[in-house]
Structures are given as C-alpha cells and as structure tokens.
Amino acid sequence: MLAGEWYNAGDAELVAARLRARRLTREYNATLEDEREQRSALLHELLGSCGDDIYIEPTFRCDYGSNIYVGNHFYANFVA
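Below the sequence we write its predicted structure tokens.
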C-alpha cells in the first residue's frame, strides 16, 4: 500500500488500524476547546510522530494516522 502497489483493504491488520484511527479521531473531535492536554495526548497516540505545540482544528479525520508526521508548532485548520 505504502509503495503504491495493490493491497487487500480487508486485511485484518488494516481493518484494525482503521478502527483504531476512527476511535481516536472520534474522541479527539468530541473534546472541548479548552481540553488542549487531552487533545495533545490523543494526537500523540494517533499520529506517527508529532512535535511540541501542535493543534488540529476539529473536525479531523484520517484513515490510519500512523502515516502522518508533523513537527513543532504545527497548526491545521478544518474543512467545512
């Protein structure tokens, strides 16, 4: 998949990874604006790696999360 080759999207490992990402993004999107520590902890668990002082505006969605790497002082806005 990462090499751009054919893969089985129904593979048990990929299904589990997608379910994990959906659970974490659902939890992230349910947080309140002042719950920055909880949001940060969820992003650190979801993403492949991330630096200090990161912020993603909810609503955030991704398929796996583990393939996303961001550095320090990262900000992403939401899409309407």
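The helical segments are 12-29, 36-46.
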